[in-house]
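Hey, weird one. I pasted the Branched-chain amino acid transport system ATP-binding protein sequence into the form twice and got a warning about non-standard characters only the second time. First submission, copied straight from the form history:
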Amino acid sequence: MDRMTPVPPPAAEVTGDDAPEPVVPEPVVPELVVDGLTVRFAGLTALDEVGFTVAPGSLHALIGPNGAGKSTCFNVLSGVYRATAGSVRFGDAELTSLAPHRIAALGVARTFQNIALSGRLSTAANLMLGRHRLTRTGFLSAGLRLPAGRREERRHRARVREIAEFVGVDEHLDTPAGALPYGVQKRVELARALCLEPRILLLDEPVAGMNGAERRAMAATLRRVRAGLGLSILLVEHDMDMVARLADEVTVLDFGKRIASGPPAAIQRDPEVIRAYLGTSGAAQAVARTAERTAAQAPADPPRGEGEGRPGS
């Protein structure tokens, strides 16, 4: 399955058992604009006037050494941390003033570096958790298994299976998530994020801890997500070969400051980036060569595989 029809969240909750389903327009993916974002903790500046824009439908990578502020940035975007100053706008919404569940309701979904699945639950049950905010029927209808509640559950389960097939984890739907191989668990977590029907995905090191084959499989999945759903992706990743092949734009952080921003090929050659993040070893040169090969390929013929090299973080 190479394409999947996006299903937008409902415009309003429907509580009546026989109420007609609302007609919801196709979702429009807005820009994510981060401007002057500053976060301080007890005198420590974790982010210092950081700014970047994730264009609609693009894959934007946020990179930098450990402690650069990437996770802090993600925590602000998802409502876990409050910004000291600056703004984060997703379309007409200002995210810095919203609680996490309000941000999720706008179509912002996040995965974590450390797997956050319920290991004892089946893969299908984990994915169904991602459908919770899309529930239309009331608690009474669902609890009493009234016809409207049963119909909605069937719709959600059908959508879960479609997303599982799209991501390539459908054969594991009945398996407890904790019994799955690590690489498959990471894809299940991605599938659960997609079950939120997001307009933008915040992916925190989606290939961390994977072997080469698992990284290639995840990269191929991310390509399908972009092509099949047209949503935006903001990616934090240390695998620079993957970033060079997948990203449209890269923003580089160091000690909480933005030190560079641009297409991957330009970023790999930036002396400040090489000094701060890639180092002066042959790894930087290898990634630059990867960027050259990627840029030389026609857009209609995306690269087929992922390299296995990874510079140290």
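That's the output from the first submission. The warning seems to come from a hidden character in my clipboard, not from the data itself. Residues 147-167 form the longest helix (21 residues).
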